[in-house]
Design goal:
Helix content: 55-70%
Distance between the termini: 47 Å
CATH class of the largest domain: Mainly Alpha
CATH topology of the largest domain: Recoverin, domain 1
Number of domains: 2
Number of strands: 2
Number of helices: 10
Strand order of the largest sheet: 1-2
Largest sheet: 2 strands, antiparallel
């Protein structure tokens, strides 16, 4: 059970979502953010064919350390924003303050590695996706199955979105179709804003 919790605690940070993105996704914000997915060889540092809790913890710590510009062991709001900007994550920059205030449990103005960890529920969900045989480690077959499933779902989503935009079904999205979709989206957003006021 302990190794399961250790894997769960670091799997999000090490397997496909930056610590900032993982924390932001917890609150249901930035649902469309896609973090960098490390390949299996980068995670399996001893090349034994399995990713262990220790390897995941080391990878998560390395990612945290990369964001910790002043190397003081904590992340400030400015460091989170700078990291997001440097990596072209404009949506993360916009939501950083809200995420930061939600994650800074002790209110000290700095996020520790522990505060950046995803919730226990999210940890269990991610662990269940990768460690399908429940042995406390992730095999290359388990990793590849999850990766293939993610790619398939993304491709299906893109195809669905294209079909919605291509309203005349000619296989291309014209400027008129694009503009109509933007206008329709703007109307929905303005309607939602009016209802919330």
């Amino acid at each position: 059970m302990k190794s399961t919790m250790i894997i769960g605690a670091v799997v999000v940070a090490a397997l496909g979502v930056t610590a900032v993105g993982a924390a932001a996704k917890e609150g249901g914000k930035m649902r469309h953010h896609r973090g960098h997915m490390l390949n299996f060889e980068q995670l399996d540092t001893n090349a034994d064919g399995f990713v262990t809790p220790e390897e995941l913890a080391a990878q998560a710590q390395a990612r945290f350390d990369a964001m910790d510009a002043d190397k003081d062991g904590g992340l400030t709001l400015e460091e989170l924003k700078a990291h997001a900007e440097a990596n072209g994550k404009d949506r993360m920059v916009k939501g950083a303050e809200r995420m930061f205030s939600r994650k800074d449990a002790n209110g000290d103005g700095t996020l520790s590695p522990e505060e950046m960890m995803p919730s226990t529920e999210r940890q269990a969900k991610m662990l269940g996706k990768f460690d399908t045989d429940g042995d406390g480690k992730i095999s290359i077959a388990e990793y590849e199955a999850v990766t293939a499933d993610r790619q398939s779902k993304r491709a299906a989503h893109k195809a669905e979105m294209f079909k919605k935009l291509d309203t005349n079904g000619d296989g291309t999205i014209s400027q008129e179709e694009w503009d109509a979709a933007k206008e329709a989206r703007g109307s929905k957003v303005r309607g939602a804003d009016a209802q919330s006021n």
